[in-house]
Amino acid sequence: MLEIERTCLVVVDVQGKLAELMFDKQELFKNIEILIRGAKILEMPIIWCQQNPRALGETIDQLKTLLEDDIPVDKFSFSCCDDEAFAERLKAANCKHVILCGIEAHICIYQTAMDLLDHEYDVHVIADAISSRTEKNKQTAIRRIEWEGAAIGTTEMALFELLSTAKHEKFRDIARLVK
């Protein structure tokens, strides 16, 4: 189970023209925004990555404005874990659970999830907050990631799992996000 104090959110490569090519992009962008807002409400660490921003462009404005307090990790490897700055931020976050969202499901999300599992993190991939250019690539990635041992969930599932109870002091704030 996800625990607020031991969980971080990782937002992967939602950038430029590539982001605009994603399958079901409006749901993708909305759910990543909800996850970011939820993590901020719950005061969880957020690690934000960009794949080669000179070539692919920067993170889309809808998300970038929510993340402007943080500096992105600009990376070239497909797995976030292969980047030293990412590894340092993950270690500093002192988390056991990692929530993954972003693009592309069958490349950067998949490879990051595999490396996190290899490093014994509890990985939660949010199915309605990841995508690929094609639905087939997205669905294949979800099946493979789950088969390899990561948990698959949804935006609401993750946020309410973090709360654990309707008595949580941030329950109303989180409930408002998903309405």
How large, in whole angstroms, is the Cα Rg? 15 Å
CATH classification class: Alpha Beta
- Give the overall shape: globular
Helix content: 40-55%
Low-confidence stretches: none
Counting DSSP E segments of at least 2 residues, the number of strands comes to 6
Counting helices, strands and paired strands, the structural category is alpha/beta
Instruction: Report the sheet-strand fraction.
Output: 15-25%
Looking at the overall shape, the CATH architecture is 3-Layer(aba) Sandwich
Sheet of most strands? 6 strands, parallel
Strand order across the largest sheet: 3-2-1-4-5-6
Q: What is the oligomer described by this structure? A: single chain
CA distance, first residue to last residue: 23 Å
What is the H/E string?
EHHEHHEHEHEHEHH
Total separate domains: 1
CATH level-four homologous superfamily name:
Isochorismatase-like
Determine the CATH topology.
Rossmann fold
Q: Please report the number of helical segments.
A: 9
Report the average pLDDT across residues: 96
How does this structure look, described?
With 179 residues, this protein is α/β, with parallel strands linked by helices. The chain has a single domain (4-178), classed as 3-Layer(aba) Sandwich (Rossmann fold). 49% of the residues lie in helices and 20% in strands. The protein contains nine helices and six strands; from the N terminus they run βααβααβαβαβαβαα. It has helices at 16-20, 25-41, 53-56, 61-67, 84-93, 105-118, 135-148, 155-163, 171-178, and strands at 7-12, 46-51, 73-75, 97-103, 122-131, 151-153. A six-stranded parallel beta sheet has the order 3-2-1-4-5-6. Helix 2 packs antiparallel against helix 9 and helix 6 packs parallel to helix 7 (135-148).
